[in-house]
Amino acid sequence: MLKIESLSVKVREKNILEKVNLKIENGEIHALLGPNASGKSTLAYAIMGFPEYKVVSGKILFEGKDITNLPIEERAKLGITLAFQNPPSIKGVTLSALLKTISKQKSDMKDFPIFFSEILEREINVGFSGGERKFSELLQIISMKPSFVILDEFDAGLDIINLEKLTSIIQDKLIRNDIPILLVTHRGNILQFLEPDVAHVMLDGKIVCTMDNWRKVWKTIRRYGYEKCKEGKLSSSKQ
Amino acid sequence: MKNVRKANFLQVNNEIRRLLAEEGVIILPSSQAYKKLKWTRDHFEQKPEEGYFIWVKKQISHPLTTCIAISSPKISQNPRNLIVIEKDVKAEVHSICNTMKKNLFGSHIGHTKVILKEQSTLQMRHFHKWEKGDTVSSSLEFHLQKGATLFHVYKCLAVPEKLKTELNSFLDSSSSANIETDVLAKRGNVNMYDSTFLNGEEASAIIKVRMVADQTSKITSHSKMIANNAGVGHVDCMGLLLSEKSSISTVPELINRNKNATLTHEASVGRISQDALNYLRSRGLTEDGAIGLIITGFLRETAFSYKGRVLPSKIYM
User: Fold this and answer.
1) Please, what are the averages of pLDDT over each run of 10 residues along chain A (239 residues)?
2) Contacts with A146 from chain B: Cβ below 8 Å
3) Would you call B278 and A73 a contact, using CB atoms and an 8 Å cutoff?
4) Strand pairing category for B176-185 and B149-156
5) For residues A97 and B35, what is the distance between their CA atoms, to the nearest angstrom?
6) Is residue A68 helix, strand or coil?
7) By the CB < 8 Å criterion, does B38 face chain A?
8) Distance between alpha carbon B92 and the CA centroid of its chain, in Å?
9) Nearest to A93 among B273, B282, B297 (CB)
10) Rounded to an integer, what distance in angstroms lies between the CA atom of residue A114 and that of residue A117?
11) Which terminal Cβ of chain B has fewer Cβ within 10 Å, N or C?
């Protein structure tokens, strides 16, 4: 599905990612853990193809196709989607107008649980609460009928009740349909709700460990901090 | 112009092609109104030769439509229109002025005076569509008597080489006006002037101006709000620049002559943020598609296609 080969990325002339390897198969959920500014979001935006995230070397392959130099919208058309941590406000454009434009599965939207239905007729992200913002992101992504989903700090700004509601939508609309997910986070709650198949730890732009037991990784992080993951005691079989 | 066939007043070049009155509504050429109804002379600066007179005496359930079009080369139009809405009556008017072909090099100098009598309501949508070689000057005058309500939308999404608009509103006590102006220019010079006079106690007005300047266009908007009595007024001007060679100037002016009046304004001019464009591109829109969607939202329900994107339509062209 998604294969990243020795990817190095710089942003505004600063090297952020260094020789990152990652492979995500259909139906897998991968958690990418790491402290602030470790390069997690850079990897997410580089996969999505944002122009300021320049690939210095390496490749991004999606369904066997080299997408390293593909524009953002072409990647989106292939089904790569990203739920932003801090999506920009789009004044004048209502969420429903955007959904009408991007939606590939109108019929499925009917039974979509609307917890924040009043935001549909509001301008995108203008005055949205944390929960409304995340719901809007999820709604957009699901309407695009994705084949790969990146959730960038999806749990940031969400209370536990809304996190439970939104992760149940993720379970129902994405995981149940075997849509692979890259879950970028540095919090534990969302891991418990989504139970990733693989956990990676990123430090200083490098993936320093990978393990299929996310609980063990998270336990190590909580007890000893991210640096402990560097020590090679955790396996790296899934990279 | 598919709905022009149903227009209550249709003038093509300098000739009236259709004039359709309805029950409770008197519609005449302005020249005849001037001749037959002496009281109308107070409202025309001079004897009019072109234009329409609409007198809404009873409530109507559907919009009245007027259209003044240019279809031949080098036509000069000088319509003088008068609309009167009687006391307690609610009405809706759609007014279209346009050129029907390219390279006609027409001139349209229009003036419309609208009188809203006590407690009356008017929703007026005013659409302009011009071509490069045309010269257009349009002025509107609204007189709102006690308790009258006005909703006015002016849209011009295809501007001529030179466009000048003038809009003056005079509000008596407890009357209210909500006036929106949307202009999208790809070329030429657009100069817009609006003045709103809050003359009566508790009069209120909101002026919203939305400008989009592309290619080599220059748009200037002067919005003046004058409180002569204890009213409330707000001016809101926003501009979007789409090219390096375009420019937008917005000049809001508030003049308060009453200590119990409140006047406010907000203004912003900028370009579409790259973050917003990239965000929409990540949803599968091309850059042009993203710009089109943002402009559609910015100018609200418009009817024209922009950069290849067909925008939702509610208007009559």
Assistant:
1) 96 95 96 94 97 96 96 97 96 91 67 67 91 91 95 91 89 94 91 95 94 92 86 53
2) none
3) no
4) parallel
5) 51
6) coil
7) no
8) 14
9) B297
10) 5
11) N
Residue whose token pair is 């901090």: A225
Q: What does the H/E/C string look like for chain B?
A: CHHHHHCCEEEECCEEEEECCECCEEEEEHHHHHHHCHHHHHHCCCCCCECEEEEECCCCCCCEEEEEEECCCCCEECEEEEEEECCCCEEEEEEEEEECCCCCCCEEEEEEEEEECCCCEEEEEEEEECCCCCEEEEEEEEEECCCCEEEEEEEECCCCCEEEEEEEEEECCCCEEEEEEEEEECCCEEEEEEEEEECCCCCEEEEEEEEEECCCCEEEEEEEEEECCCCEEEEEEEEEECCCCCEEEEEEEEEECCCCCEEEEEEEEEECCHHHHHHHHCCCCCHHHHHHHHHHHHHCCCCCEECCEECCCCCCC
Strands A53-62 and A65-66, bridge-based pairing? antiparallel
**CB pair distance less than 8 Å for A51 and B283:** no
Nearest by CB to residue A93, choosing from B278, B286, B294, is B294
The helix/strand/coil state of A41 is helix
Instruction: Extract the tokens encoding B301.
Output: 């329900």
pLDDT tens-digit map of B196-251: 999 999 999 999 999 999 999 999 999 999 999 999 999 999 999 999 999 999 99
Q: Which residues of B touch A101 (CB under 8 A)?
A: 283, 285, 289, 293
Least Cα distance to B24 among B124, B82, B91 occurs for B91
Here the tokens at position B260 are 């119990």
pTM confidence score: 0.81
Q: For tokens 């992101």, what's the residue?
A: A137
- How far is B144 from B79, CA to CA, in rounded Å? 22
Backbone angles phi, psi at A215, to 5 degrees: -65, -40
Contact B297 A76 (CB under 8 A): no
Closest CA to B293 of A228, A73, A154, A28: A73
Closest alpha carbon within chain B to A47: B282
B-chain residues within 8 Å CB-CB of A48? 282
Between CA A54 and CA A69 the distance in angstroms is: 10
Q: State the count of interchain CB pairs (< 8 A) between A and B.
A: 63
Q: Distance between CA A154 and CA A152 in Å, rounded?
A: 5
Over chain B (317 residues), the average pLDDT of each successive run of 10 is 74 95 94 96 95 96 94 97 98 95 95 98 95 94 98 94 96 97 93 98 96 95 98 95 94 97 95 94 95 88 40 32
- Tell me the two tokens of residue B116: 């809203």
